[in-house]
Amino acid sequence: MKEDQAVCALSALAHTQRLRAFRALVVAGPQGLTPSVMAEQLDVARNALSFHLKELAHGGLVTVEQQGRNLIYRADFMQMNGLLAYLTEHCCQGGACEVTGPAHISRSCC
């Protein structure tokens, strides 16, 4: 992943509703979700959600597929993993990172 792609993806995630929508799509897995189901799950207006999904798609983090009358949004796991790899590419100068607490709270290099 290039720097400008990482910036675009991070920018797309830099909003509470977009982060929540992306996480919902990650949980949904490969089958994805329709905007109406996501709006209900996230308790957000459909028109607002549409704007946020457009931003996530622009950031390369979600894909959209038309199935009949429905749109199916899916997390792009390859892009997500590419972003994570970009962010951690030179972590600890290539050495193993030491976990200092629960993995979901904090990590400390070397």
3D architecture notes:
With 110 residues, this protein is mainly α. It has a single domain (3-94), classed as Winged helix-like DNA-binding domain superfamily/Winged helix DNA-binding domain (Arc Repressor Mutant, subunit A, Orthogonal Bundle). The chain has helices at 3-13, 16-28, 35-42, 46-58, 77-88; strands spanning 62-67, 70-75. A two-stranded antiparallel ribbon has the order 1-2. α2 packs across α4 (46-58).
Features:
two-stranded antiparallel ribbon; 110 residues; mainly alpha; Arc Repressor Mutant, subunit A; 52% helix; 2 strands; elongated
Q: How many discrete domains?
A: 1
Per DSSP, the total helix count is 5
Radius of gyration: 16 Å
Largest sheet: 2 strands, antiparallel
Low-confidence parts, pLDDT < 50 over ≥5 residues? 106-110
Provide the fold topology.
Layout (H helix, E strand, L loop, with lengths): L2 H11 L2 H13 L6 H8 L3 H13 L3 E6 L2 E6 L1 H12 L22
Antiparallel strand pairs: 1-2
Helix pairs in contact: 1-4, 2-4
